[in-house]
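Limitations

Structures in this collection are predictions, not experimental determinations, and the ligand pose is part of the prediction. Treat each record accordingly. The example that follows, with adenosine-5'-diphosphate as the small molecule, is included so readers can see exactly what is and is not provided: the inputs are given verbatim, and the output is the predicted complex.
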Amino acid sequence: MIQLDRVSKRYPIPGGGGKDALRQVSLHLPAGELTFLTGHSGAGKSTLLKLIMMIERPTSGDIIVDGLPLNRIGSGGIPLLRRKIGMVHQNHQLLFDRSVYDNVALPLIIAGFPRAEIGKRVRAALDKVGLLDKEKLNPVMLSGGEQQRIGIARAVVNKPPLLLADEPTGNLDPALSAEIMDLFQDFARVGVAVLIATHDLSLIARYQHRLLSLREGRLIADRGEDAHGA
Ligand code: ADP
Ligand code: ADP
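Predicted complex:
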C-alpha cells in the first residue's frame, strides 16, 4: 500500500546548510496491517507523514502510495492522493461551529459527492465509531474520547485504503485509548493500511503490532518485519 525506497529529506536552514530529517528510509506498509511509528521528538515522524501526504517533497528517494508514484505526480495529483488517505490528528481539528454530521460530511462535500450518497456514508461512518445518535450535536458537547471518534469517522468517511494517525491517543486515558485502538484494528481487519505515529510506549507495549522506530531520521528498528521491507 505504501512503499518508501531510500527516502531522505533535508530541510534548508535559512542562512545556509540543512537539517537531515530523514535519511535513506526504506519500508513497505501492506494493506490490512496496523503499524506503529515511534521515535523521540525530532526523530522525523511528522516529516514521514508529511511526505506520504505530499505536504513536503523528499530530497531524494521514491514513495509509492496505493500505486501512485509521488515523484511523478505534480501538485495537480494531490487531490487524488489525499482521497486515498484518512488523517487522524491528536487534537481532532473538528469545527466547533458545525454539527457532528457536518464535520464528518466535510471530506465528501469537498470531493463533490451527491447529497444522498453523503448522508448514507456519514451515517455508516458514525455507526462504525458508535456515535450515530450524536449526529445533530455540536462536537463541543462531546467528551474527548467521543471527539476523537468523530475525528476518526471523518478520516474514514470516504473509505480510504490508508489511515494515518498522528498521536491519536495523546490526550486520552488508557481506557479511551483502548477504544480508539479497537477502531483502528477494525479498519486494519477490513484491509486498510493503518500507520500510527506515537510517543506512547505503554500503548505500543500493550499491542503486538509492527513497530517502526526512527532515530535522528534513520529507521533503526522494525519489530515484526525486515527493516528494509521491500
Ligand atoms: P518528529 O515528528 O519525530 O518530532 P519532525 O519530522 O517534526 O520530527 O522533525 C525532524 C527534524 O527536522 C527535526 O530536527 C526538526 O527540527 C526538523 N524540521 C522539521 N520541519 C522542519 C522545517 N520545516 N524546516 C527545518 N527543519 C525542520
Ligand atoms: P458500499 O457503500 O460500497 O456498499 P459499505 O458501506 O456497505 O460499502 O461498506 C462495506 C464495508 O467495507 C464496511 O462495513 C467497512 O467495514 C469496510 N471498509 C473497507 N474499507 C474501509 C475503509 N477504508 N474505511 C472504513 N470501512 C471500510
